[in-house]
Amino acid sequence: MLLEVRDLHVEFRARDGVARAVNGVSYGVAAGETLAVLGESGSGKSVTAQAVMGILDTPPGRITGGEILFQGRDLLKLTREERRRIRGAEMAMIFQDALSSLNPVLTVGDQLGEMFVVHRGMSKRDARVKAVELMDRVRIPAAKERIRQYPHQFSGGMRQRIMIAMALALEPALVIADEPTTALDVTVQAQIMELLAELRRETGMALVLITHDLGVVADVADRIAVMYAGRIVESAPVHDLYRAPAHPYTQGLLDSIPRLDHKGRELHAIRGLPPNLLTVPSGCAFHPRCPRARDECRTDVPPLHTVDARRGSACHLWRECLHG
Amino acid sequence: MAEPILEVRGLVKHYPLTRGVRFGRRAGAVRAVDGVDLTLGRGETLGVVGESGCGKSTLARLLVHLERPTAGAIHYKGEDITRLSGRALRAVRRNIQMVFQDPYTSLNPRMTVGDIIGEPYEIHPEAAPKGERRGRVQELLEVVGLSPEHINRYPHQFSGGQRQRIGIARGLALRPEVVVADEPVSALDVSVQAQVVNLLARLQREFELSYVFIAHDLSVVRHISDRVAVMYLGRIVETGTDTGIYDRPAHPYTQALLSAVPVPDPEGREKRERIILTGDVPSPADVPSGCRFRTRCRMAQERCALEMPELAAPTGGGPTGSVAVHEVACHFA
């Protein structure tokens, strides 16, 4: 495993209590693999990624337990300086909002080149040559001229390409993309996903794709981890999960997609609302919304049951769920 | 098609661009809506799809008269509302209401839910006598699936999905006949979107509403719409029944748009063919000559730069008759 997150816990201290944003998350990513982390807002999918990258705001956030093993080393035991050297060079992140992630007062050439100056000790001139190469690589037309432009002079899709270029600059083994296409139009989203897939094939990097979009996941993921209220509720290879979900939440999400044969009828909605992290329900956090909930679901937190060698489900009733 | 309740003809909205310090020096215009024809039948849902900058939100604001058009007409039950003002306009506006996209910014944080939903009665006092308003608001809360006891709460005490229900209740307060919904579910979590889509469908049956449903999510639009119009750079490039548009798209833009939507099923994903458009949507301040899509179109030829294609029935497709069901604005469709 390239990356292994083990029993990670993250808390946020808020005025009216402690929000347990991540509550014992474990997942692994093999070299070259694409793992999709699927979840709604507040599920803890982005906080987990920030903890892995070492960019969690502390305070108010605090990692209260667990290990993050990257190439065999526990990142949580490293010094700030050691982590800084890994970030960017060995693992990199792509954010949803490129405009606020790029520096508005530096040209894109300076920002791309900075990676090589800081991490590789290159001269400014050499770094500039590298920056043009990178822009070509993410297929930004007229790279030589546009390298002198500022982020606001690029369209949303082009800015996202610049972010991708920056993430790939030092050829990291792992890239984490947090909702990389959510802010984009559907035709531009298709361009960016296509670009990511091509670059992944070329470089052999592993990709953790954080998203709420079941369509995007079905398109690119090898495996999926579904998160709910700070926990992974189901993890499975992509084909298995779409064919037969083993958790009622996953099932609910798949059923709520508008489908052709359902035209004009009610959509299968999941009832209720995602939980408030300050007052997560007892037992299984999904039980107030779950059509299958029983007494034990209200009292006992379900462990991640082994469904088969490659699948897990945190549902007491996973067998019933899996077999309809 | 049902009897038309709203007919839009040649609708145009240009926002002038000025240059320099001297006030009023025209330097072109943003052509947000640039000649749109639409018909909404009574009790029908018309879906309008398109990407950001295509003019779909400006169209929504024109339909509810939040903006005055530069040119064109909007006929409501045969009367051109763009020419109305004062009392006559107010009477028409009661019947055409709007639901906004963002349930976080479209509700005043200092007003209680009761005041927000009841505010339309302040502007249209004839709709409900003062003594009855509180009762009406409580009824509306119940209709949209919220507890009538929450009438004194503030917006921040509700989740995004609940806030959108408040916005919908406000839109229904005056018992309108037409509701224009601009991206009503796109700010919501996936598990909550389906609830709100179901609510809108139920309200349509209960109150015999006609919807203009504007969205960029093509699968939601297909689910809820009877007919669909596809917009690109201020114009409608294709319109038809939901099956016509989704199963037999005739415009190269519609084809690309549909093929770009990720399918939520990994089966056979390696073989799926996708039309990837190159480049970005041009600026509405500088639209290409002729067909606006030609700069990104794989079929574009010389003619496309010279002649603007008009909406017409696609060759070999659709029934011929008095009312064209499927229309497309492309020289080669």
Question: Notable features of this structure?
Answer:
heterodimer, A: 324 residues, alpha/beta, Rossmann fold, eight-stranded mixed beta sheet, four-stranded antiparallel beta sheet, 12 strands, globular, B: 333 residues, seven-stranded mixed beta sheet, 11 strands, 29% helix
The termini of chain A sit apart by 33 Å
Can you give the mean pLDDT of chain B?
A: 90
Most strands sheet of chain B: 7 strands, mixed
Instruction: Sum up the overall morphology of chain B in one term.
Output: globular
Estimate nothing, just give the exact number of structural domains of chain B.
1
How many beta-strand elements of chain A? Answer: 12
Order of helices and strands of chain B: EEEHEEHEHHHEHEHEEHHHE
* CATH homologous superfamily placement of chain B: P-loop containing nucleotide triphosphate hydrolases
- Top-tier CATH class of chain B: Alpha Beta
The CATH topology of the largest domain in chain A comes to Rossmann fold
Number of helices of chain B: 10
What does this structure look like?
- The complex is a heterodimer of chains A (324) and B (333).
- Chain A has 324 residues and is an alpha/beta fold.
- Chain A has two domains: 3-221, Rossmann fold, CATH 3.40.50.300; 231-322, no CATH class.
- Chain A is built from 13 helices and twelve strands.
- Chain A has an eight-stranded mixed beta sheet with strand order 6-7-8-3-9-10-12-11, sandwiched between helices.
- In chain A, strand 7 (174-178), helix 8 and strand 8 form a beta-alpha-beta unit.
- In chain A, helix 4 (108-120) crosses helix 5 (124-137) and helix 7 (156-168) runs parallel beside helix 8.
- The two termini of chain A are 33 Å apart.
- The model of chain A has no long low-confidence stretch (mean pLDDT 92).
- Chain B is of the alpha/beta class and 333 residues long.
- Chain B has one domain: 3-Layer(aba) Sandwich (Rossmann fold), CATH 3.40.50.
- Chain B contains ten helices and eleven strands.
- Chain B has helices at residues 56-63, 86-93, 113-123, 133-143, 160-172, 190-207, 218-224, 242-247, 252-260, 302-306; strands at residues 4-18, 26-41, 45-49, 71-76, 79-80, 96-99, 178-182, 210-215, 227-232, 235-241, 327-328.
- In chain B, the strands form two sheets. A seven-stranded mixed beta sheet of chain B has the order 6-7-8-3-9-10-11, with helices on both faces. Chain B has a four-stranded antiparallel beta sheet with strand order 2-1-4-5.
- In chain B, strand 9 (227-232) and strand 10 form a beta hairpin.
- In chain B, helix 3 (113-123) crosses helix 4 (133-143) and helix 4 (133-143) crosses helix 5 (160-172).
- The radius of gyration of chain B is 21 Å and the shape is globular.
- The interface between A and B is large, with 46 and 40 residues.
